[in-house]
Structures are given as structure tokens and as C-alpha cells.
Specification:
159 residues, mainly beta, 1 helix, 9 strands
Length: 159
């Protein structure tokens, strides 16, 4: 993605027969602002110039505690589901007009598919590489940890 961010939420569910393993689901709100550089056209043959939208991306996997402060994760990227905001709009240039003024159009199937592919690549690059949560400390409904060498995170428990 050219410019974007994702806000992840993790849900850890223990297996019924284990306190040290289970299913993990990561749901991310993804904001995307990008110049459109693919060859996609919309259903009217217009070429998008830029897209500003959001998407909800969900992926599941398994977790297991390997010691008292580390958790191993394995996300199944085949479960990745991406829902692009159906109310999103994009700027497009109409090649049939002599003006360079972009026009606004609601997102359609072709552009949605291209945005979905970009979000999928971004999520696969980021989430697909998360293998371990280290230095886990849980206190007062808060979980402090590290993902990667220098990514210190704090999670709060949601009832």
C-alpha cells in the first residue's frame, strides 16, 4: 500500500482441553489512501486516479504458549477475509473527456477487487510474518508485549 494503516484487534480463545493453546483471530480495520497504479478500470472503462477507503480484514490461526512469557502464533493466510467499504468513492479520469479534472464515483466491482488485492498483499506481508509474541506481561486487564525486535504493544481486555 502506498499510504495506509491498520489497527489490529486480537482474540485469543483457549482450547477446551488446554490452558496453553487455542485459536487466535486478528481483525484489522485498514485505512487505505493511495494513488491507483494498477491497470484496473471500472465498469464504465474509467481509470481510477486515487482511492480513499477502509476495509475490514480478518484472519485466524492457532496460538500456543511456549514458556511463561512467549506465545507462538501461526496464522492461516488462506482464512484471510477482506471486506472493502461498499460506500467508498474514488477519483477517476474519464478518457472520453478533454478535461483533466478528476471526477468522483462510488467504488465498483473492478476497483473493489483491485483494492482487495492490495490490502491482501499488505496484510499477508505484515500478519503473515508475525510468528511470536514475546515478553508477555498481563496485569489489570492489560497485556504488554513485543512483536518483532522493537514493536512494543499494549492490549486491553475487552469484556
Amino acid at each position: 500500500m502506498i499510504d495506509g494503516q491498520f489497527t489490529p484487534a486480537y482474540q485469543f480463545v483457549r482450547n477446551s482441553d488446554s490452558k496453553t493453546s487455542g485459536v487466535v483471530t486478528q481483525t484489522s480495520q485498514v485505512a487505505v489512501i493511495l494513488p491507483f497504479t494498477t491497470n484496473a478500470t471500472d465498469s464504465a472503462g474509467n481509470t481510477p486516479v486515487s482511492v480513499t477507503t477502509s476495509a475490514l480484514a480478518t484472519v485466524t490461526g492457532v496460538w500456543s504458549a511456549v514458556d511463561d512469557d512467549d506465545i507462538m502464533l501461526s496464522f492461516d493466510m488462506n482464512t484471510l477475509k477482506i471486506d472493502v467499504d461498499p460506500d467508498a468513492e474514488y477519483l477517476y479520469a474519464d478518457p472520453r473527456l478533454s478535461t483533466d479534472i478528476p471526477r468522483v464515483q462510488p467504488i465498483d466491482g473492478n476497483v473493489r477487487s483491485a483494492v482487495t488485492a492490495l490490502v491482501k498483499k499488505g496484510m499477508t506481508d505484515v500478519v503473515g510474518n508475525i510468528r511470536e509474541i514475546e515478553d508477555v506481561k498481563v496485569k489489570d486487564g492489560m497485556m504488554r508485549c513485543e512483536i518483532g525486535k522493537h514493536n512494543k504493544l499494549t492490549f486491553s481486555k475487552v469484556p
